[in-house]
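Supplementary Text 2. Reproducibility record for the structural model of the 225-residue chain.

All settings were left at their defaults, and a single model was retained for analysis rather than an ensemble. We include the record here because the model underlies the residue-level annotations in Supplementary Table 4.
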Amino acid sequence: MTRALTMLLCALLSLCPSGCAKMKPVQKGAIGGAVVGSLVSAAVGGITGGPQGAIQGAAAGLVAGAIVGVTGTLIGCYNCEKQKNAIETASEHSYTPDQGYMIWLEEIRTEPETIEPGQPSKLIIKYALMGPSHNKKLLVVERRELRTKSKLLKEITPKLIERDSGTYFSEQEITFPMNVSKGDYIFRASVETEGVIKTQEYQFNITKIPQTKRYALHFSNHKLH
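Retained model, structure tokens:
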């Protein structure tokens, strides 16, 4: 392998995220997919066409791995925190054990409400879980889908997690590619456990914010803090 190719691979590897405090292995793999694609393409290009081929291959890999419409959305950190215990949750939702397993989707949204391509955003779900036995661990599946009114565009890898009864705030970081079409989209969230599933939708907008307005917002945010 040439010195130029070696330097290129090192540069690309430096783009890989160092990791998030609460990131699951599947998220690390997802966010690194585009970089892996570029590394593979670079290696093939280096073998077949020398350093110039490596550079072209890396560029092609990045395009194929990350910039393919909504399907090229990069998956970032996943975080979750327990906000209320079983007793507090049961009281809030007037839950009794004879109701069996229950799920309440209390809130789903994007942050920010209007998303700019290339800027990190979050898909947020707040939900409550209850089971007849407060001490039993519940196997929970969280699903996040990006849709239009007529079709599924992308399903974020489902999370399979053990949880206690209680109320949870869960967020998944994503970054839409720069070439995504602006307009209205739908974030569909579902939570499932013990044969019970709840689904809810939230409409959000993707737009391209002009540079001058972005700088004004940035300055305004700094003044607020």
